[in-house]
Amino acid sequence: MEKELQQAQEIYKLITEYFVTYSFQLLGAAIILILGIFIAKKVSNFVYKICESKELDITLTRFIASTTKIAIIVMIAVIALGKIGISVTPFVAAIGALSLGAGLAAQGLLSNYGAGLNIILARPFVVGDTIRVQNVIGQVKEVHLAHTILNDEDNVEITIPNKHIIGEVLSNSHSDTLAEETIGISYDSDPEEAVSVIISALNTVENMSTERKPQVGIENFADSSILIGIRFWAPTCNYFETRYRANAAIFKALKSSNITIPYPQREIRILSDKT
């Protein structure tokens, strides 16, 4: 019991001597750290505003601002530790060893971060674009170092690890999504008139993309109808709503113009066996 009390007294003595010796240094380190965090936040906001004024992509802007803030805080922390007599050299060596072990243990996570950095710097897509990758389609909502979040028309969030984006075939249709339709008209109808009627109907649909004009033409010749191919671009945020409106407008316009949409027809002949 006496030995334990002596050890406790020695520890208390060491702590008291440390605080007596480094009391002013501790206060100075705390002040430096608080000022450093404040300055880092201000500089980060300043960098963010500069990037916004240069009209940089929002994802790249956030990355640059966050990196600037972290770098300043790390430098301030090193200065503060030096003020209280703590050498950062052993910490750097320990961090290096831990990083090697962590890197081997978390290759998948690091590959996501590496892919995320590639996305932020190369910018194959930006927030607001519509991408299709790994049989998933959606509008980019957020881009993080580890993953990318997509959003569909039903407001469902889709999270994709970045390693499944880089190195894959990626389709980027920006803010719109392509809608493809096929409708058949009878051989007695004029296909040029049908194409003109369909284009006019599409031009009346709300939320239709104005940057890309609809494409309408003869796609194929079926057994009982001429197939008219229809391609138009709709905003991803209300793709299905726009597509259903377009279908209704096309049907109404064809009916008003007396252009027939035929039913499938088959001719059946019954041969009698005459003896």
In words, what does this structure look like?
- There is one protein chain.
- Helices cover 51% and strands 19% of the residues.
- By secondary structure, it is an alpha+beta fold.
- The chain has 3 domains: 2-105, Helix Hairpins, CATH 1.10.287; 124-172, Roll (SH3 type barrels), CATH 2.30.30.60; 176-256, 2-Layer Sandwich (Alpha-Beta Plaits), CATH 3.30.70.
- A 5-stranded antiparallel beta sheet has the order 4-3-2-1-5. A 3-stranded antiparallel beta sheet has the order 6-8-7.
- Strand 7 (215-221) and strand 8 form a beta hairpin.
- Helix 1 runs antiparallel to helix 2 (58-83).
- The termini are far apart.
Q: Summarize this, please?
A:
Helices cover about 50% and strands about 20% of the residues. The protein has about 280 residues and is α+β, with helices and mostly antiparallel strands.
Calculate the mean pLDDT score and round it. Answer: 82
Distance between the termini: 125 Å
Largest sheet, spatial ordering of strands: 4-3-2-1-5
Count up the helices.
Answer: 6
Short key terms for the protein model shown above:
275 residues, alpha+beta, Helix Hairpins, SH3 type barrels, Alpha-Beta Plaits, 3 domains, 5-stranded antiparallel sheet, 3-stranded antiparallel sheet, 6 helices, elongated
